[in-house]
Amino acid sequence: MTTVPIRRALLSVSDKSGLADLAARLAEAGVELISTGGTAQALRNAGLTVLDVSDVTGFPEIMDGRVKTLHPLVHGGLLGVRDDPGHAAAMQAHGIGPIDLVIVNLYPFEETVMRGADRATIIENIDIGGPSMVRSAAKNHAYVTVLTDPADYGGFLEEMRANGGATTLALRKRLAAKAFSATAVYDAMISQWFAFADQQQLFPPLLALNGYLAAELRYGENPHQRAALYTPAGPHGRGIAQAQQLQGKELSYNNYNDADAALELAAEFRETDPAVVIVKHANPCGVAQAGSLREAWQRALECDSVSAFGGIVCVNTELDLATAEAICQIFTEVVIAPAVSEEARAVFARKKNLRLLVTGGLPDPRRGGLSAKPITGGLLVQSRDNGAISQADLRVVTKRAPTEQELADCLFAWTVARHVKSNAIVYARDGATVGIGAGQMNRRDSSRIAALKAAEAAETYGWPEPRTRGSAVASDAFFPFADGLLAAAEAGATAVIQPGGSIRDEDVIAAADEAGLAMVFTGMRHFRH
Description:
CATH class of the largest domain: Alpha Beta
Radius of gyration: 31 Å
Largest sheet: 6 strands, mixed
Helix content: 25-40%
CATH superfamily of the largest domain: Methylglyoxal synthase-like domain
Number of helices: 19
Shape: elongated
């Protein structure tokens, strides 16, 4: 059927936004209203005539309302194929009246979980009758219209008005697709709560993933790819996906990816001095902390000013006027901050294409959760890399122990290295990166690339020597051979932090001793692919 007139509607909603107006418009069009419980009462309070479901079924609501719409006189009216002679005969024989419109949204399961309700309350907020009606109506969309979202009420009423009180098949198909998505997301949230919260299963036998479309993006990593941003359904932490964009062009797929990398690293410094992170292609190219944000910006920029051009900047505290003016001296794609002063906003406003994001806070770098990566024919899932080490976890393995300053630089370099693509080498000195080598196939080349960048910075700024001289160097995984460590020594590093665990650890330790280096093992690696 192409158009189906709306003569009889079943309404049962938890979210009563726009309900009274919608029902009034239906009543004006001569539509019979059938409803349940609180929805029926709300409609009567609005002065509307409503038929109770129990009047239709001839059976009262029982078990505290758990059983009310699960009845053949309801579902027969939803599922009956109107132009099938057998279905029509069955409906006539059993007194089943067709239902043309279902307006249902589901018990607030997500909200109940998020407010910290007890288990019994959470279970009671698992809707059974609602999804059953929605799925029945959506399956039979050739004849039945289903509304699950108040945002669709206006468009539905316009459609009825344009079609003399009927709906088109095109609309019913769109609403049916949305209805099945709504019940799928709802069931996925329940599944996740049972698995992760109720039964502490990290990897349940069936993994239900879901999300809401937040935006379609201009394209993916490359212009020939399509892309979109989804946000999770159910309880989740806030991050770059929830940031408020104050100005600038739409964020691209790459912008989101890089901005996320910058925010995750900036969040590591939430309890320390003001920090600035500069990211390019999801890798840090400069990180620093200092007494002021303006100073931290300058020190981060000096690590690799060439790569910083067109990069992403994230800070861990309110962005002030002085820092905003400094950032605007170079081309920057995105700037991210927990907050931005009014004076800084005015400065950025002069850069119309610069995207300015306010997060309202920083994510917890130690939070739990899962990360997923699609592969051909499957999905790799792992717990987040939220591991951390403290000074007490370090084991000195060389003859010389690091000085207090070397130890501080080791820990700073280690914090940054865990956010650099493997193989990762990070040189740090006095709370700032001075050379970063990322994503190489061997650790020696990462050491050399980081040292080369430090040498280029010295030439750019007219320093007498690269700042890798007297620095600490971090490696995200063990040195399999001594060559990577010796390359760091050649660059001037005096202290090393690495996981250890290689079968050649003794050779690497001996090379460190011979070079006069202090080296500590963490016992934890941070591969990042």
